[in-house]
Amino acid sequence: MKEYESLIIGGGPSGITAALYLLRAGIKIGWVEKLAPGGQVLLTEAIDNYPGFPQGIKGYELIDKFTAHLDQFEFDKIRDEALEIKDRQDKYLVRFSESEVAARTLIICTGAQWRKLGVPGENKYSGRGVSYCAVCDGNFFRGQEVACIGGGDTALEESLYLSKLVSKIYLIHRRDAFRGARLYQDKVLKDPKIEVIYNTIATEFVGDTDLTGIKLKDVKTGSQSLLNINGAFVFIGLDPAGGFFPADLETDSQGFIKTDHEMVTSMPGVFAAGDIRSKYCRQVSTAVGDGATAAYNAQAYLEKNF
Ligand SMILES: Cc1cc2nc3c(=O)[nH]c(=O)nc-3n(C[C@H](O)[C@H](O)[C@H](O)COP(=O)(O)OP(=O)(O)OC[C@H]3O[C@@H](n4cnc5c(N)ncnc54)[C@H](O)[C@@H]3O)c2cc1C
């Protein structure tokens, strides 16, 4: 069985950064990615808020640059899915479908996925008007009319963020009252740019090359309508890429890994970085910062304990 000083699980921005820091420190690493390296950035049409690219950069181009940096080093790239973590006192065993590896430290960087509505047109217009992240894409809709879909804290908070940028927000909620915190509800209801459309669901995203509107259905009356907008933000939740975590790894109520500000988890020698962490701001820049911090602390842990 192969053994590593550190095994990084996940090849998005946080995993790439953790790998880079550990390789530069001379640590023997394994790097696991079930798909192609890049994570959610590969789903991103353009990244406009990562420093160094004042004109913005396409997601795949940014990842090409990230991975080119890693190409300077020789290390084991494991193209597989981590399915289980077993604790064996001074090391962890990580199981894949047909093999296992051992590592003294783990850095879990498996990220998250935005929940989709699953209606026609959603995939077609994703990155062409349909978005899941106000901080990422709000700037593209400055002065325009958008719809936000959802009724929890995230939908309310993100609508308030967007209202500083756009000219008008239709907040579409399938119930007749919000679930989100009272504080945000009050602010949303007082915001002159936000018009709430209750008891309504989005049934289809429509447009030509880019999104131009959403088909809506009133769940009480069954009546249908078309709302013309320039952008639509879907805020119905975010799922952690977990499912293989050991019971001792502490997570929040949604399944995101709890860490301290040094990326230390509840299990010794196990660190977590990026979107898989329980945290507020999920961005490339924060994932990169988490990856660097986790790697630095994994190295310190190895020096202290082995
Ligand atoms: C459409 C879209 C647009 C975005 N726009 C922006 C933007 O403009 N600016 C910005 O800063 N951020 C943006 N983001 C957010 C940003 O992409 C994420 O915050 C960032 O990619 C998180 O990095 P990560 O490394 O933590 O996780 P991820 O990027 O999610 O990478 C996790 C990786 O782990 C792999 N993995 C998962 N489970 C396993 C397993 N069990 N075994 C092996 N591998 C596994 C996955 O395949 C994936 O490659 C956007 C996200 C999306 C979806």
Shape: elongated
Bound molecules: flavin-adenine dinucleotide
The span between the termini is 19 Å
**pLDDT < 50 runs, ≥5 residues:** none
- Radius of gyration equals 21 Å
Write down the overall mean pLDDT.
96
Q: What is the β-strand count?
A: 19
> What does the largest sheet look like?
7 strands, mixed
**Highest-level CATH class of the largest domain:** Alpha Beta
Number of helices: 7
The name CATH uses for the topology of the largest domain is FAD/NAD(P)-binding domain
What is the CATH architecture term of the largest domain?
Answer: 3-Layer(bba) Sandwich
User: By CATH's scheme, which homologous superfamily of the largest domain applies?
Assistant: FAD/NAD(P)-binding domain
> What is the string of SSEs from the N terminus onward?
EHEEEHEEEEEHEHEHEHEEEEEEEH
Report the oligomer: single chain
What class would the helix/strand composition place it in?
alpha/beta
Could you explain how this protein is built, in words?
The mean pLDDT is 96. This protein has two domains: 2-113 and 238-305, FAD/NAD(P)-binding domain; 116-234, FAD/NAD(P)-binding domain. Helix 1 runs parallel beside helix 2 (59-70), helix 1 packs parallel to helix 7 and helix 5 packs parallel to helix 6. Helix 1 links the parallel strand 1 and strand 2. The protein is an alpha/beta fold and 306 residues long. It contains seven helices and 19 strands. The strands form five sheets. Strands 1, 2, 5, 6, 7, 8 and 19 form a seven-stranded mixed sheet that branches. The longest helix has 22 residues, at 284-305. Helix content is 24%, strand content 29%. It binds flavin-adenine dinucleotide.
